[in-house]
Amino acid sequence: MIRSGRQIPWLRWLGAAGLVASAACASTLARPDAARFPDPPRNAITFWGHACCYIDVDGYGIVTDPVFETKLRIRRRKVPAPPPAAYAGARVILISHAHDDHLSPLTIAGFPESTLVLCPVPAASYLAQDRHVVRAMRPGDVQPFPGGTIVAVPAHHPGGRRGVHAEADGSALGYVIRTPHSTLYFSGDTNFFAGFDSVRTRYQPNVAILDINGHLHAMDAVQAARALGARTIIPVHWGAYGYWWFGEQKEPRDMDDLRRHLGASVVPLALGASMPLTGPPPTPAAAAPHPR
Predict the structure, then answer these.
(1) Residue 282 counted as domain residue
(2) Has residue 49 been placed in a domain?
(3) Partners of 93 in beta bridges
(4) If 274 and its partner were Cys, which of 44, 209, 237, 258 is the partner (CB 3.0–4.6 Å)?
(5) Phi, psi of 88 (to 5 degrees)
(6) What's this model's pTM, rounded to 2 decimal places?
(7) β-strand 207-211 against 232-236: which pairing, if any?
(8) Beta-strand runs (E) in 204-260
């Protein structure tokens, strides 16, 4: 039986807890660690923890959901952060939605002033005082960059800062990044929904970066990966934060299910590790079609 985030009561409880938790608790950026987070290589996807990846396209840096704060409402950062030198080449920041583990104005303020921020409409208000240029995106909007384009696509998820009711109304977004080397899809947080089939039909991504969490997990994540048809699946939304006193997650959740059903197409990246934009070389297991 397929389960979605809407069917998991504790997720709503956690969201409600965030409403009464001390949102104003002082937070700073985590200590930078250049050894753990070296400069990202060219034409590669580098994992920086939770939903944050640095995507280098011929020297042009695209960063997904950067959050380097020490304290969030219900999470605490358990690892250091990338040093500013590692994202000195960032040119675009992609924000999927306004939840505090995906949108951090404090983190974004440390990026080069020339960096463009793309975000859904509800998230733009939290960046109103920021010195960066912010473009509020709706599904179908396109942002060109040298050699490629970034296309906003729907996600089925709450879009407000403390929202818990998922919709596919454009308040939360995923992004398709079309490069000269391959086409990437970053899901952002989302439940399983028909949008995955639409991404496959319109864009045929080679690599999918999936936020596998309480909203998209277990067989939902497997079905999403199959619907996308991407040769390589990078599971993210792990590896940096833990709930209050708990430690950080040591590996992507539901890896047993992912490996059992998707085989070698699942490529988890360790913190600070990188993979070429084209994905790893195919193996017989990864190249074989998965049964539907």
Answers:
(1) no
(2) yes
(3) 63, 117
(4) 44
(5) -65, -25
(6) 0.88
(7) parallel
(8) 207-211, 232-236, 241-243
